[in-house]
Specification:
single chain; about 80 residues; mainly alpha; about 85% helix
């Protein structure tokens, strides 16, 4: 069984999330320089960044699982 499509989709999702994470980090850095002015916005972005990190980690785990499954089925 070939998991090429699944691996490609996981890779694309991880790339998109990484780009979003970079943008969120840039905004957070900018907000840090304006201390106290945008505390609510900063808190929401930090929460979003946490969920992005968790999503990227889940995708990495899924990619590893797909890779292992692909190798396992290839040996049969």
């Amino acid at each position: 069984m070939d998991f090429t499509l699944e691996r490609k989709q996981v890779h694309e999702l991880a790339n998109h999330l990484t780009i979003v994470q970079g943008a969120v980090k840039a905004v957070l850095k900018s907000l840090d320089q304006k201390k106290g002015q945008y505390d609510d916005e900063k808190a929401r972005l930090e929460k979003a960044n946490d969920y992005i990190k968790k999503s990227i980690e889940s995708l990495r785990e899924l990619r590893a699982h797909i890779h292992a499954k692909s190798e396992e089925l290839g040996k049969e």
